[in-house]
Amino acid sequence: MEALPTVTRGSEEDEAYERREGLLQAKERGEGGEEEDDREPQGPLRLIGMNSFFFAYGCYISSFGIVTLPTESERFFPQYHDLALASFLAIAGLSQLSGPTAGFFSDRYVSRHGRRRPLLAMGALVALPSIFVMWLARSYPAAGWAPTTYFAAFFLAMMALNTMYSSCAGLIPDLVPEAELGKANGIMAAMTALGACMGFLFIFNFPDTAALYKLYVGLMCTTVPLTLVASREKPALAEHPPWEWSEITSSYWIDANAHPDFFYLFLCRMCYYCGVSVQVFVKFWMRDIVVDKDGHSFTTEESAKYTADIGFIIQVFGALGAYPSGLLSDLTGRKPLVAISCFGIIAVYICFCFMDHLGQLLWMGTVYGLWNGMYLSVDYALAVDCLPSKEESARWLAVWSVACFLGTTIGPLVSGPVLFIFSVPPDPDAGPDAPHRTSHNGYRAIMLIGAVWMALSAALLVMIKKGGRPARNQL
Question: What is the DSSP letter of 357?
Answer without folding.
Answer: B
